[in-house]
């Protein structure tokens, strides 16, 4: 990827321009860059942006120039899911977020008069400025570090929401989290907040296992050194009440599923390449286990992001401990660090 100068369109009535302070790098960005998920090119990627509103359209009312905001995924705002407060379930969201244009087919970006596909997850925030709809922006209080706050728009709510909005563990229950990247660490923090008695972290990377202690794990399992299923059943005889699969690895999902009790629930949030299939033991499923997926933690951004901010303020979600800053000009190094796992959450600073 490279850094180039492009032209940003003027905001339409319901649109805003945000000067980006920082944008997190998500593994989803890598998948689209590598073609594992389709997206029209040429394009600007990036979808964990946060910054300051510097211009608004004539009909914008919910944010104003000078507001600090986190940007999040797109949704139609008019379907049953959106009107019921569940925009993550919007059936129109895949098209809105992945077509690279506005509803009318126009692009928000151009270079030398030629269209460049922006609007990636309604943002394209690997950039100095973003043009997006006002409803995709959530205001932030002054105390939150703006450069790092973009992580609250995707990876963090995906993991935390998988626990708080989907798994919904009762106090004293047990949870295992497979994959301790930004999504998995956020799931760990949410399990700790929920009062789980055992929060087990599973990863191949010893450094991430140690970092997970900062987020609330009670037990760690190095997947390359021991069998996670056996280890979890030794820690919690009969299996855990719930499991989160946050790595996108096929084996991790089957291990997570088999690590639960006979009536346990496994939530899939790891985004494997399009076309990936999983194998689940039929007897284990028949016994009463549940397997379900969710996107974006089933979160309503303007409701859930303030909740995450409060968790951060109470020291329960230390996003600064999983974040490493890179200059926007160092984007290739940041993406490489995300790909090889040497950095949990690279954050690009324009």
How would you sum up this structure, described in words?
- This protein is α/β, with parallel strands linked by helices and 350 residues long.
- The protein folds into 2 domains: 179 residues, Alpha-Beta Complex (Quinone Oxidoreductase, Chain A, domain 1); 136 residues, Rossmann fold (3-Layer(aba) Sandwich), CATH 3.40.50.720.
- It has 11 helices and 16 strands.
- The strands form 3 sheets. Strands 2, 3, 4, 7, 8, 15 and 16 form a 7-stranded mixed beta sheet that branches. Strands 11-10-9-12-13-14 form a 6-stranded parallel beta sheet, with helices on both faces. It has a 3-stranded antiparallel beta sheet with strand order 1-5-6, with no helix packed on it.
- Helix 11 links the parallel strand 15 and strand 16.
- Helix 7 packs parallel to helix 8.
- The longest helix is centred in the middle third of the chain and has 13 residues.
- The radius of gyration is 20 Å and the shape is globular.
- The relative contact order is 0.16.
């Amino acid at each position: 990827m490279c850094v180039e100068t492009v032209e940003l369109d003027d905001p339409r009535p319901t649109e805003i321009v945000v000067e980006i302070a920082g944008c997190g790098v998500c593994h989803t960005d890598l998948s689209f860059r590598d073609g594992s998920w389709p997206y029209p090119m040429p394009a600007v990627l990036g979808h964990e942006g946060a910054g300051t509103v510097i211009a608004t359209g004539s009909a914008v009312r919910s944010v104003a120039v000078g507001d600090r905001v986190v940007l999040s995924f797109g949704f139609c705002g008019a379907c049953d899911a959106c009107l019921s407060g569940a925009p993550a379930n919007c059936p129109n969201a895949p098209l809105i977020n992945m077509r690279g244009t506005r509803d009318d087919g126009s692009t928000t970006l151009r270079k030398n008069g030629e269209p460049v596909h922006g609007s990636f997850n309604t943002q394209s925030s690997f950039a100095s400025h973003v043009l997006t709809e006002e409803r995709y922006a959530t205001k932030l209080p002054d105390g939150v570090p703006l450069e790092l706050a973009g992580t609250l728009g995707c990876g963090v709510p995906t993991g935390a929401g998988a626990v708080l909005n989907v798994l919904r563990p009762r106090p004293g229950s047990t949870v295992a989290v497979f994959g301790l990247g930004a999504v998995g660490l956020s799931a760990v923090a949410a399990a700790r907040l929920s009062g789980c008695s055992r929060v087990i972290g599973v990863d191949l990377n010893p450094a991430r296992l140690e970092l997970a202690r900062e987020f609330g794990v009670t037990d760690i399992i190095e997947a390359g050194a021991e069998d996670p299923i056996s280890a979890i059943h030794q820690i919690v005889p009969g299996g855990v009440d719930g499991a989160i699969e946050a790595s996108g690895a096929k084996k991790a999902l089957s291990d997570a599923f088999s690590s639960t009790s006979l009536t346990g629930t496994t939530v899939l949030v790891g985004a494997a390449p399009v076309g990936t299939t999983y194998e689940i033991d039929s007897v284990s499923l028949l016994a009463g286990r549940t397997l379900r997926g969710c996107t974006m933690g089933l979160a309503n951004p303007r409701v859930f992001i303030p909740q995450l901010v409060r968790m951060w303020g109470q020291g329960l979600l230390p996003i600064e401990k999983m974040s490493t800053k890179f200059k926007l000009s160092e984007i290739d190094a940041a993406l490489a660090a995300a790909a090889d796992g040497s950095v949990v959450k690279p954050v690009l600073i324009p």
